[in-house]
Structures are given as C-alpha cells and as structure tokens.
Design brief:
With 484 residues, this protein is mainly alpha-helical. Helix content is 75%, strand content 1%.
Length: 484
C-alpha cells in the first residue's frame, strides 16, 4: 500500500524520533559523548515539536486503519513532546555526575516518547497494546537506571512485575471484546455498541479488564500500589517523565475511545464503579500523602488524587465539549506544576552536598537562602492545591462545573473534601520552606540559575501558571481544538 505525502507529514514527529533513535544507537556503537547525544536528543524533540505545525497545516489524516492524526492527537503530542524535552533537560543535569553509561538514558526516553505519540493517535485495539508496550518497556530501564542503589533496582522490579500483570489484563480484555465484536477497530466497536452490544456481559467484562489495565498506568485506586515506591526509587527526571508523558499519553488514549466509554457509562453498574474509582483515588491519594515525609512519595500520592479529578472527563454522560476542555485544562495545569516542582527539586539537588534531596526536612528554611526560588516553589504547590490566581484553580473549577452539569454529586463532594485534605500536606511543604532554623542545610545555588536551561523551564512554568490562572482564555481557546 502506497503512503501519500500528506500521510508522511502526519507521521513526521514519529519518523523524526525514530530516525534519531537509530542514529543514537549507531553513535553509541562507535563512540560515547554525553554532550553530543544529549544535544541530538534535544534537537530531535524540538524538531518534532516544529513538525507538528506542518502536520496541523495539512489537516486530519487517517494513516491506515491503525492511526489517525487530527487536532486531538496534535494537542496531546505537543504536551508529550514538551514534557519529554523538559525531562531530557533534567536528565542532562542528573547524568552529568552519573558514573555509569549515560547515553542510553536518552535512547530509552526517545523510544518511550515514540510510543506515547503513537498512543494518542491510535484508532485500533492492537495499536493500543503495541503503543502502550512501546511506552512502558523503556520505563523499566529508566526507573532502574541507577541500579547500584537498592531502592532504584527494587522499584524497577516492582514496576516490571505489575506492568506485566497490567498488560495481561489488557490483552485478555481485548480478546474478550474481539470474541464478541469480531473487530478490533474502535470505530466498528463503537458502532456495534450503539446497536445494543453494550448490554452483553462479555463485552462489558472485556472492557472492565481494559479499564483495570489503564488504571494501573494512571495509578488510580486500587491499582496504585507501585506509585510511591517507584517515585521514591527512581531519579527526579524519571519522576517527571512518569508523572507527565506516561500518564498524559494513556489518558489521551482513553479519551480517544471515549464513544465506547460513554456507552459503557450508560450501564449503571460500570458508571458506579468508575465513580468509586475516581472518588477513592482522590481521597486515598490525599489521605496517605499526609503521612509522608519524603517529598517524592508525597508527589506520587498527589498524582493519584489528581488523575482521580481528571477522570470526570470519562464519567460525564453529556457535554462532550466541556469534558474535553476540562481534561485539556487539567492536564496542562498538572503538566506545568509538575515541570516546575520537579525542576526545582532537580536544581536544588544539583547544587547540594546531598546528591538528591528527597526528605522534606532537607528543604527547611530554603526561603532564607533563596527567597525567589522559594516563592516559585510556593506558587507551584498552590497550583496543585487549586488555590485562586493559579492555573490549578481554573482546572479544579472546570472539574466542579462539569460535575454539576453531569449531576455527579458524590463526585463533587469527594473533590471538595479531598481538596481540603490535600491542603494539609501542601501547606506543610510551604511551612517547611519558610520555617527559620539555624540547622538548615545550605544549598549553594548560583544567583543566575534562571538563565540555565533548567532554570528557564522553571520560570516558564511559573509565568504560565500565574498568567493562565488570571487570564485562562488563551488556554481555553487552545483546548477547543480537541473537538473542532
């Protein structure tokens, strides 16, 4: 089958990253140079971002029955590539003092990014499985990259085991759906569900297994057991990658199969189960985070709660446009907050005697040595908490409005209650930053940290969170591309 020029342009971001992966593999075979490999990685990710302009210019393209490239996939591809670029910048800083082989880290990131982009473009159950595996398998190596440390190796093994179980659930669910529908195309399955296929138990059981698999990838309750240990055991760049690229890609794919999901939600039992998962994710994530003293574990549990909030996009039976806007704004808000927080953690750890500051008490009194950095950190935390004048407040406002339109009163109550609970540990982090202590651990961050690549990522996130929190209209206009 011949592929047209327009279809090649549609696949250009994936092709650029694929060619870069091959080039890096060849380079590693002959010589190793951290600076060159990292520069090639940065360049390819930027070029992929730029290529999305031409992809958008040529309009929506259906590339075989497996892949569809449209405004929806372009929007989430931008988020994935931007988060990947930021993760690579953090990785360069972290790897600069790493004693082992460093170049393979970028190779794993690029392969995983390629899987993430394909996942948001998929239109077929087989492609969903292949893309998820392409996204997940490199994560095994990234999580355990610092294998000399027991916690890193342990986190990698735990993630491998649970991810394998998750993949088994996904395959079994796909098999059950195929056994009944005799098709793996999302469009055909949706057409069949419209003709009352949805009432059949075999189809519902298969879709239930798929939801369980996706719940693991998003670390939703009760599929969250890996989250805290993996966050604590892996490096800060990997924490950022897991929080953003991995989860954004999976959630975008779930929105891609939204017609099937909305049909499922017409079943009272399935809808009830999804509401329970969302509510328990919000409450459990915030409650357990209160007990944590490790900031990476706190952020891990916080991510459980945040994707419980965003799950409203799949629960709403009406207002498809409002659902897509809510999910888009919430994911952008979570992405920017994560970029800022993990960027600050990476910056502080880089200039500390303690290589990686994971314990919360190590940030005691940071304000008295670095006041502006502490203010930036505070804004990021307040955005996660959903405090006004930050983008996090806008996203939480949209979540509540969508819940009201959909009459999900239990969900709204859980959002409000969990938000109050979340304030406890968010304010504890802020109190630690501003508490005065003569025993505080000094951090020799240079005054010009803002002009470094890492500092620029932090400042861009900081400015966008405040600007879009006060004037969100540009972001609202952007998210409307999801359904235009």
């Amino acid at each position: 089958m011949m592929i047209s020029f327009q279809e090649i342009i549609a696949l250009l971001p994936v092709l650029i990253i694929g060619v870069t992966v091959v080039c890096i593999m060849l380079c590693i075979s002959f010589f190793r140079n951290h600076f060159i490999i990292s520069s090639v990685t940065f360049f390819s990710l930027k070029l992929s971002l730029l290529s999305l302009y031409f992809t958008k210019k040529y309009g929506a393209q259906i590339v075989t029955d497996l892949v569809v490239v449209d405004n929806f996939s372009i929007f989430f591809s931008v988020l994935i590539l931007f988060a990947s670029l930021a993760s690579s910048v953090l990785a360069y800083t972290w790897l600069d003092s790493y004693l082992g082989n460093r170049e393979e880290f970028y190779l794993l990131i690029l392969i995983s990014v390629m899987g993430g982009i394909l996942l948001v473009c998929t239109n077929h159950l087989v492609m969903i499985f292949l893309s998820i595996e392409l996204l997940a398998v490199p994560l095994y190596g990234l999580i355990g990259y610092n294998y000399a440390i027991y916690s890193s190796l342990s986190a990698s093994v735990k993630y491998i085991i649970l991810s394998t179980i998750s993949s088994s659930f996904l395959l079994f669910g796909i098999a059950l759906i195929y056994a009944y529908c005799s098709t793996l195309s999302i469009i055909d399955i949706n057409n069949n569900s419209a003709s009352n296929v949805i009432s059949q138990e075999l189809f519902l059981i298969g879709l239930g297994f798929m939801i369980a698999s996706f719940g693991f990838k998003l670390s939703l309750f009760p599929f969250h057991s890996w989250t805290a240990d993996v966050y604590a055991g892996s490096s800060i760049p990997v924490n950022l990658f897991l929080s953003t690229v991995n989860k954004i890609a999976v959630f975008a794919m779930m929105l891609r199969i939204f017609p099937v999901m909305s049909s499922v939600c017409s079943s009272t039992k399935i809808s009830f189960i999804l509401v329970i998962i969302a509510c328990f994710s919000m409450l459990f994530g915030n409650l357990i985070a209160i007990r944590q003293n490790n900031i990476k574990r706190i952020l891990g549990y916080s991510s459980i709660a945040h994707f419980g909030y965003i799950l409203i996009g799949l629960l709403s039976k009406q207002n498809n446009e409002l659902s897509l806007e809510t999910v888009g704004i919430s994911l952008v808000s979570y992405l920017l907050s994560s970029l800022g927080i993990f960027g600050i953690l990476s910056l502080i750890s880089t200039f500390s005697k303690n290589r990686e500051r994971s314990e919360l008490f190590l940030y005691r009194g940071l304000f008295w040595d670095h006041p502006f950095l502490s203010v930036v950190f505070t804004v990021m935390i307040l955005s996660l908490a959903g405090i006004p004048i930050t983008l996090g407040f806008i996203s939480k406002f949209y979540v509540i409005i969508l819940g009201v339109h959909s009459e999900l009163w239990w969900f709204i109550g859980s959002v409000l209650l969990s938000s109050v609970i979340g304030l406890v540990y968010y304010l504890r982090i802020i109190r630690t930053l501003y508490s005065f202590s003569s025993k505080r651990i000094l951090c020799n961050i240079p005054w010009n940290w803002g002009i470094t690549p890492l500092g620029m990522i932090i400042l861009i996130s900081f400015v966008l969170i405040l600007f879009l929190g006060i004037y969100p209209q540009p972001l609202i206009n952007l998210t409307q591309l999801l359904y235009k």
